[in-house]
Design brief:
The strands form four sheets. Strands 15, 16, 17, 18, 19, 20, 21, 22, 23, 24, 25, 26, 27 and 28 form a 14-stranded mixed sheet that branches. This protein has a ten-stranded mixed sheet with strand order 3-4-6-5-7-8-11-12-13-14, with helices on both faces. It is built from 22 helices and 28 strands. It is about 35% helix and about 25% strand. α1 crosses α7. The longest helix has 20 residues. The chain is of the alpha+beta class.
Length: about 775
């Protein structure tokens, strides 16, 4: 049932905490190694005995100066070794020590391990079977918790065993080759094994146990119908069952039942409301037409909430992606009961969806199919019934790339049929009135006087949030708006940061539970709680490489000194240089791309954030001199290309890297693609002058913040878009939707001249 997906967001948030806290290693390093011959895989029948033996050998020698960490780890060792009574005692001691302190990961772990140890002890005594023993132990330890604590524990329990299987298998493979493992890694392995093995025994018991807990804690209503002009909005509600009096409401207006977090809102002492876009029901069925009625419908839902007996008349909207857009759509109507909005990576129609940089993305077709129509793609479309969804869509992108069809036919190629929704979007390639009407106008931005919170990331979860933040401040300079930016991508910003992100290891301070931080901010707005320190100013950003957060009133301040670097056009061969001053006139840097060549159709596009070799596909690189000192950069990359293009248009891709002294390259923001004919203005297309030298100013709609180490170099990579997963501009000057490979005719060439430069602000004052 789709309804089960409503737990996914809680599971993902808990996984984020796991990625940070799971090892819980001692505060000092051990020297001894343990001989260990791992089993073939986690399902090997010998695995349990081997892990028991390892735990038994660690227990007598394990020490830790941190008493709480010691108790947490001893509990795990005792459980795996079969000493359940001792484990229960250790867990109880840790819970006693944590009383009166924040209910953090250690407190959650003490509860989880205490439940499992208690259940195994009852079972070992022969009194009851494991299912009844676990139910008794669960009720004993979870029932005394408050709603928020119980919700946190249940979210941790919901993490499936499969989430631990791959890390466990990888660890087995690693230590099998070495034959032994250090004590610290041995302890981490025992903890991972316990998480995996225990969940295999109790996961099937959780739905009934959770239902009983939630039934005693909350009042839930699943099928609410809210009348709106010309229709009805389906909604569901969860509110604290023991609350007295009216409460504020947290509203999510969405089209995805997987975003239903009303119970988590109720656990925080609010009424949680999940309302669905017109046409969608809570079970995920029903087609919708995105964006069109959300503003008036969401405002009508807010007015309805304010009239209910359980409401105190205050509503805060929260959202991510599409539901984040809906929060802004409602705010522009200024319903009286709406007191704040809090969004994570909000979608901005016409800005970052269904195109970005005015280049349409094939992903819009998948999004329309799965979210607007709520229909899975038929396997017959691709002919491979066993392929996963990602593989199916990648194969369809390849089919489109190899063909000679205009982009007008992208729906027929990917879906096998016409889509009125896709055709409507394609009819509006510029940011015309069709897209503008979905977003707040300048006058509406100026009137939005409620507190606003937005989270965004450096690696692809930023364009919408940046647009809303900048336009709000531009039109209301004193707006109460707060933006947080960090090294997150579209997945990690919503689901939680793992230990590594696409090959990059984020600074420890970047590991923030953003949904939890959002609730803390809402508590500040509605309950008068202290404002989270991480949101101290309007603009709050994590400086990669410095392991620090910074806080400033403005995203980009005029007093910060710009770092301007010119593209060296005098040298022959690559890589070219980035220079602090223009090269003497003469020469040019050239890039030629055959847009008709599809031999690279099966060559994957790398998405790693840290790599040993710069991408060279359809691109040209410019490398700066080694930095004499550590340098902090912040903000958006801007530039002017002094170019001679061979065609009337070109889709550029711009990336910026830090190349360390060791030669490794760190991507500083997600590659930014933009159509030259729309650079600096989305509304009207202005074609280039083929064969003539001209200046093209641009601003990358990305933000980054990084401390570049002394000896590192900045590297600019400029490419020409030719990817299977997006629209391709052949430069003929026609509507790009109508172009085909035939329009390529000959390779597209661009020459860069001496006045070309890029610049970004530094942390220094000018």
């Amino acid at each position: 049932m789709r309804r089960k997906e409503s737990t996914v967001s809680r599971v993902r948030r808990a996984l984020m905490r796991l990625g940070v806290a799971l090892p819980a290693l001692p505060s000092w390093a051990w020297a001894a190694d343990f001989g260990f011959r791992p089993p073939r895989d986690p399902e090997d029948a010998a695995a349990e005995g081997l892990m028991r033996d390892l735990a038994e050998r660690i227990l007598p020698v394990y020490q830790d100066a941190d008493k709480d960490a010691f108790l947490a780890n001893v509990t795990a060792l005792q459980i795996v070794s079969g000493a359940y009574r001792a484990a229960q005692d250790s867990s109880r001691s840790l819970r006693e020590r944590r009383k009166g302190k924040p209910f953090d990961v250690l407190a959650e772990r003490a509860t989880l391990d205490g439940i499992y140890a208690g259940a195994r002890m009852l079972e070992a005594q022969g009194r009851v079977g494991f299912a009844e023993a676990y139910a008794r132990s669960f009720d004993e330890l979870v029932s005394p918790l408050d709603n928020a604590q119980a919700q946190a524990v249940m979210a941790r329990l919901e993490i499936p065993a499969a989430a631990f299987r791959e890390p466990l298998r990888q660890a087995f493979d690693l230590w099998r080759a070495k034959g032994s493992l250090p004590e610290a890694e041995a302890l981490a392995l025992v903890r991972t094994w316990l998480s995996y093995q225990s969940r295999r025994s109790f996961s099937g018991l959780l739905p009934e146990l959770f239902a009983a807990q939630n039934g005693s804690r909350y009042v839930a209503q699943a099928d609410i119908r809210i009348p709106v002009r010309g229709g009805v909005i389906h909604a569901s509600m969860v509110r604290p069952g023991r609350a007295e009096g009216a409460l504020p409401a947290l509203l999510r207006f969405t089209l995805d039942p997987a975003e239903d977090d009303a119970r988590r809102s109720a656990a925080r002492g609010y009424v949680g409301i999940t309302a669905y876009v017109r046409g969608r029901t809570p079970d995920g069925k029903g087609a919708v037409w995105p964006f069109v009625r959300d503003s008036e419908d969401a405002a009508a839902v807010i007015d309805w909430i304010a009239r209910q007996a359980w409401s105190d008349g205050r509503v805060v909207m929260l959202g991510e992606g599409y539901s984040g857009y809906a929060a802004w759509a409602a705010a522009r109507r200024r319903p009286a009961a709406l007191k704040a909005i809090a969004t994570i990576a909000p979608m901005a129609p016409g800005i970052d969806f269904p195109m970005a940089g005015q280049i349409f993305r094939n992903a819009m077709v998948r999004w329309a199919q799965e979210h607007a129509l709520a229909e899975p793609l038929h396997a017959s479309t691709n002919g491979d019934a066993d392929a996963g969804p990602d593989a199916v869509w990648q194969a369809l992108d390849a089919r489109w790339y190899r063909g000679n069809r205009p982009y007008w036919d992208i729906d027929r190629v990917l879906l096998g049929k016409r889509s009125r929704l896709i055709r409507t979007w394609l009819t509006h390639p510029s940011h015309d009135r069709y897209w503008q009407k979905f977003l707040p106008s300048a006058e509406q931005f100026a009137r939005i006087d409620i507190p606003v919170l937005s989270f965004a990331g450096y690696f692809g979860a930023d364009a919408g949030a940046l647009h809303f933040h900048r336009e709000h401040l531009r039109n209301r300079p004193k707006a109460d708006t707060t933006l947080l930016l960090g090294p997150y991508d579209a997945s990690s910003i919503r689901r939680g940061m793992a230990t590594t992100l696409r090959g990059y290891t984020p600074d420890p301070v970047a590991h923030v539970d953003l949904p939890e931080l959002r609730y803390q901010w809402i508590d500040h707005i509605l309950k008068g709680a202290n404002k989270p320190a991480l949101l101290a100013d309007r603009f709050n950003y994590q400086v990669m490489g410095a392991d620090q957060w910074r806080h400033a009133p403005l995203l980009e301040a005029p007093e910060r000194a710009p770092l301007r670097l010119y593209l060296d056009t005098s040298a022959r061969g690559e890589p070219h240089r980035l220079l602090p001053a223009p090269a003497e006139e003469g020469g040019n840097a050239r890039l030629s791309v055959d847009l008709a060549d599809r031999r690279d159709v099966h060559t994957p596009w790398p998405d790693a954030l840290r790599m040993k070799q710069l991408p060279a596909r359809n691109s040209i690189s410019f490398v700066g001199d080694p930095l004499p000192d550590g340098t902090e950069i912040i903000g958006s990359l801007r530039g002017v290309f002094d170019i001679t293009p061979s065609r009337q248009d070109v889709d550029f891709s711009v990336s910026l890297y830090e190349q360390t002294a060791s030669g490794e390259c760190q991507l500083l923001f997600d590659p930014y693609d933009f159509r030259a004919s729309y650079a600096g203005h989305r509304v009207r297309r202005r074609l280039l002058r083929a064969g003539e030298r001209q200046l093209l100013a641009f601003t990358v709609e990305r933000v980054t913040a990084c401390r570049l180490a002394a000896g590192s170099r900045l590297v600019l990579v400029v490419g020409i878009n030719k990817r299977p997963d997006r629209q391709i501009d052949y430069g003929s000057g026609k509507d790009v939707n109508s172009e085909t490979i035939t329009d390529a005719k000959w390779p597209l060439r661009v020459r860069w001249h001496a006045r070309s430069y890029v610049e970004i602000q530094t942390g220094k004052s000018s």
